Predict the 3D structure of the following.
Amino acid sequence: MFSLAESSLSNPSLRAWIRATAEHTRPSNIRVCDGSENERAAIERDMVGAGALVELDPKLHPRSFLHRSDPTDVARTEHLTFISTKHEEDVGPTNNWMSRQDAEKRVWSLFAGCMHGRTMYVVPYLMGPVDSPHSRVGVEITDSPYVVLSLRIMTRMGKEALARLRNSEGFVRGTHSLGDLSPERRFVVHFPDTLEIWSIGSGYGGNALLSKKCHSLRIASVQAKKEGWLAEHMLILGLTNPLGETHYVAAAFPSACGKTNLAMLVPNLPGWKVDTVGDDICWMYPGEDGRLWAINPENGMFGVAPGTSLKTNPNAMRSLTHDVIFTNVALRANRNVWWEGMSKVDDHEVMQDWRGDTWTKSDAQAPAAHPNSRFTVPLAQCPSASDSFNAGSGVPISAIIFGGRRAKLAPLVYEARNWQHGVYVGATMVSETTAAATGAVGIPRNDPMAMLPFCGYNMGDYFAHWLAVGQQLRHPPKIFHVNWFRTGNDGRFLWPGFGDNVRVLKWILERVDGAVTAREAPIGLLPHTDGIDLSGMDFPEERLFELLAVDGSAWMQEAGRTLEFLGRFGNRLPHGLLTELRSLLNRLQLSLH
Ligand code: OXD
Ligand code: MN
């Protein structure tokens, strides 16, 4: 076994933890990762040799690979995800709780000897820009080389993280093993009090790349609550208008609802430009100037592949030309990748589907790419990557957008009256479920701030924390809600979305600048019908009316659903949200008479 004495690790608590983990998991050897090119090439070579990666044609996609996961292991498993705290009420009604004692019995026991015959990789990583005071270090111990290669893209991994860590004990300790990949022995458990994560039985991104949902959201949200900042499931983009003025916007959408597309949108309005700061996670801090500032703690993107094309997201497609890991997409005979919605293919072209089985479109029973298939790629490869992506101070946020996937009810866009109302709008978000998590898709569920699966503590306290942060801000961002997914009576989307979403962002920034007025509606402030710039677009005005319509009685029913949902938080629910619900009901009642 590799001797730790030989390694460059000087941090005593890191060394002690590695030793204790190795004693329990019994790997054949230990490799401390430095993030170097040589290390990456060696791991890729081994994985290709073992059949765990398929190398793509290097002329089409240099240094890029396809990975196929176990067919039972293709999405996050929320029902197997737990938060472990001393008191159950601290995780609230929306999380699964497990006591430390139970976790040791049911989960830690599964780690005994689990790395037998495998290499144990020790992966130090930094979340956030190298010189940011807000960045945090984590170390993931894993027996999955796919996780190592992915973390190398998704985080600042290796030497930079160790340099930042020095001798500090304040790092997040993630222990991950593929175990036997059996869904019966699959668990992800978080210990916010001791900054630990244990994940076993899954190699899927959201369960296995512990830097992402586990550290940067579930653990970080608890740290943020204690320390007065926000760890959110949000993209960050910079939007520059034709006068050269830039505003930064953070936006929360549930998984697989187009965050990556919006983060790197190519505007369908002349003179406008989008810069991408982040596509999934956002840490926000009240600044000394009274504004809210944001960093993207990640270094890469783990984006949903199906539906991504040169038409829907040209910047994503251009990011994917080299140094990419594709997971569960289809493979063409020329060793290129394909997924539904990428391009037209011949009905009789023979490919391998995401499981590696022969597939042709003409006799397909199921999609060639898994609906939750992904690409993993450094953000720096994106043509729209922002210069501010590495800025230690982050970027000042002018607007926060909440959005759901709703076939009916929610209009294209509306503005909250103030911060408290905005927190209510975020807390009462509802969205139809997607393939990013296991379970039925298309079912409406409450997903406050798109954080339902990711908030590491009682969401009643989380809403109170949002209200408290707002009180510290002398210049809080304005808060909006958008819905790109509203459908007409024929079931078709009313709004084209993608590059045309800039038209909605334009209105949002005009509201931020105080350049346009808005129309009062019971649910908030809406654009006047000439408020959305439809220039250059063949879009009937009646359709915009339909998109902006507010159906008072349907909203009354929604308020009933909201009351039931918020009621679940009992006395942890801050009064401010009930006040907002009451005023909404009053306004709706008045509008219906
Ligand atoms: C993701 C998710 O992978 O939200 O980003 O599921
Ligand atoms: Mn996400």
